[in-house]
Amino acid sequence: MTAELVRGQNHPLDRTRVEIRVTAGGPVVAGVTLGDADGRLTGPEAVAHPGAPRRSGVEVPGQAAAEHRIAMDLDALPETVHRVGVLLALPGGPGAPATFGAAAAPSVAVTGPDGTALVRYTLTGLGPESAVVAVELYRRQGTWKVRAVGQGYEGGLPELLHDQGLSQAAELAAEIERAVGWGRAHALPAPTPVATARAERPGVPAAPPTGDRPSPAHRATSDAPAASVHAPGTDPAAAPAPGAEAGAAPTTPPAGTPVDYRHPRRRTTPAPPDPAPSPAPAPSAPADSPTRPGGSAPPDGPPVPVAGDAVGWSMEERLYHQAWGMFEDLARSVAAYRSAADFARSRLETELDEVLADPRHRLGTAADAARATARDRHATLLARARAALDRDLGQLTAESEVVEPALPPAFARWDSPVWQGHHHASQEPPMALRLGDLHLPEAPDLRIPMLVRLPLERGLWIDSGPPAQPHGARPDPEREVGRRELGSALTDGPPDEAALRRLAMESAVAIAARLLAVHPPGGFAVQVIDPAGSAAPTLAPLVDSGVLPALPVPGARGVASVLDDLTRRVELMQLAVRHRAADALPPDLDPADQLLIVHDFPYGFDDRALTRLRYLADEGPAVGVHLLIVADRAQAREHGPVLDPLWRSLLRLTPVPDAHLADPWVGHAWTYEPLLAPKGSQVVRQTLERAAAARRLP
């Protein structure tokens, strides 16, 4: 999966032969700097540029162009090279933009030689700069990483090269300019762009934008990575704005304009135009940003949150996309803040090391002043990053306060008023189900609904063992506080093994009640395997309501009976689907979807039962049989690796808050909070009673 970086963020590389692919809205000059451990250049021979395109391990293009491919073999670089910077510069000349702020934002992708994208970074937020260090590949403890830099220079190449310690910066910049001018004079005419040629033919639309996701946009500064990374709609380098001429060069808003905090993939119907003509507004956001229903944002603040402000055919679908849009927005904002904090800390360490490098400058007022200046700059950068994060969190919190009360029962918490009067009004199953909440330590009060699509294509596993901090995860004090509060509410202390097992089974019953309630009457059923019979108190709401006719039969006989029935159901349903013979199903076969809850797994399971359970996990979801296992993973390891394929196929949940869920996008360790009913509430029992009563009605 391609990693989308924001300014200051880094990402490890799993290979040493890579390509740097540059895409811009117009011709740019591409080059590479080969620096030492401090990023300093030893001389002009440490720069690959159009006048000298080949250096050891690096080859750059010899002309200015809108697209570049830079080949790199990191193993072939000299041992003294620790930092490889990719620089971009505007070539100048008639008709060319003088600054990056006047052109479409360039993007850089690190790919394998076969074109497989590894990392992508869009350099947004540039203004008067005419040269920029786009990305940096650096060696750290024997491995290579890539960092999104985006450091611009108003003074162009001379200032950029001088900042990297090159004494002959002006001379080398002039040499690069001469080489680019010679290449422009001897270049063949460029072919007509495909998008323009298609647009010139009537009835043929311009080429669609490339890329699978809009690139993040954020405000940039000259000192540190920005911490606001919400994308403003569509990458301006990829698609023309509405109303723009097809094939024309797109534009970006000038530097310093406000950032649009709306999610990039939210598309809503634009507000109707004002009846009275008015002058064109100042460009406060890209022209292709989506607008909120009912009007645009107030001129003195961010847009007003609106529930259902996302793409979708129904309000349920719009709320689903809006919830996950909030998740992505929070992930981006926190990733930018962490990157900014890491950048500030790295810069502080570098500046302090420079002070201590020269023994003559370690003592005295000059050294004290340099250290104080470095620490002040570090504090300033952190404060700036936190302020940007707080601004984003404020907007997301306001949106959450609007969205949460509007969620339907399948998406709502148990304490939502929608559960008090829910009586199976819908005859269609919902598109998703809420399994809990997610949050990050930087925003402990902002909860994002964890929604999974229905039907459940992946089974669930509720871990009844003690939570463990994942390797490499950031400490989350809220997680420990939540565990202590939950434990004290239940057992006057931290949850012990028995309390965790009971909580895990209560979580399973709550999920079952939610599934029964949001499906049409008779459209869902629950079966339970409890070989030891230890879950009887927790299963009481299911039995008392009539959802379960009786407590599950204990022992191996009960296990085999349930598994045999469900295996037969899966096989018959597969035959009916394959031969389109649903009418030929036996009359005793319940057509409702089935949720199988297995308690204390793998106790009571022999080899035959394990084989059947794995068969249900693999084949059951396609024909309406879903699996929910309650077990202690650590204890189950004693049964050997035969269960590992089953565990890996299930989504792990926990009965207490735990930071164990990692998103594949930016790699955050999210704290998951289970969706349990408030203490003393009877909402789960009442929901089960309503579901059972609705099923009994003719």
Write structural notes for this entry.
Among the domains are: 3-190, Sandwich (Lipoxygenase-1), CATH 2.60.60; 417-463 and 476-696, Rossmann fold, CATH 3.40.50. It has helices spanning 156-163, 169-185, 194-200, 315-357, 365-403, 477-491, 497-518, 540-545, 555-579, 607-619, 633-636, 644-648, 683-696; strands spanning 3-4, 10-12, 17-35, 47-48, 54-55, 58-59, 65-73, 83-89, 107-111, 117-122, 131-140, 143-153, 432-440, 443-453, 460-463, 524-529, 593-599, 625-631, 651-653, 658-662, 669-674. The longest helix has 43 residues, at 315-357. It has 13 helices and 21 strands. 43% of the residues are buried. The strands form three sheets. Strands 1, 2, 3, 4, 5, 6, 7, 8, 9, 10, 11 and 12 form a twelve-stranded mixed sheet that branches. Strands 16-17-18-15-19 form a five-stranded parallel sheet, with helices on both faces. Strands 14-13-21-20 form a four-stranded antiparallel sheet. The protein has 698 residues and is an alpha+beta fold. Helix 9 (555-579) packs parallel to helix 10.
